[in-house]
Amino acid sequence: MWRTPAHYVHAGGAVVVVPARVAAWLVARAQLDGLRTEVRGADPEVDSVLIALTVSAMHWRTSATGSAHAPEPEVGRRSSWMNTTEASDHLHVTSRAVRLAIADGRLPADRVDGRWRISRENVEHYRAGRRAA
After folding, report:
1. In a domain, 76, yes or no
2. Residue 75 lies inside a defined structural domain of this protein
3. Is the pTM of this model over 0.85?
């Protein structure tokens, strides 16, 4: 469910609450794991917040995808990846809607051997984003 920015700001602006799904999105897209390693020890409060975001992201990722780690680019047995048909079934939309979301940049995907490969995590982020809109 989408909420206004004021919903996340508390204590007169001194505290911002970050939902686990948003933490997972930030960790993946803003490369917070690299930043956390790079600035480790510079500021204990920053260290603690970056660790808290990572823990929250792993919790969400585990509940959404069944794995605490972001998917590797290789396709495995019960793959961390979906094709457009699998994603469309999961999202309850058409395959064309999935391809349009990819083309518009709303759903990150990789093209491998002429086929789209979409991580389960990105499908869950997309699904949550659609529910919030």
Report:
1. no
2. no
3. no
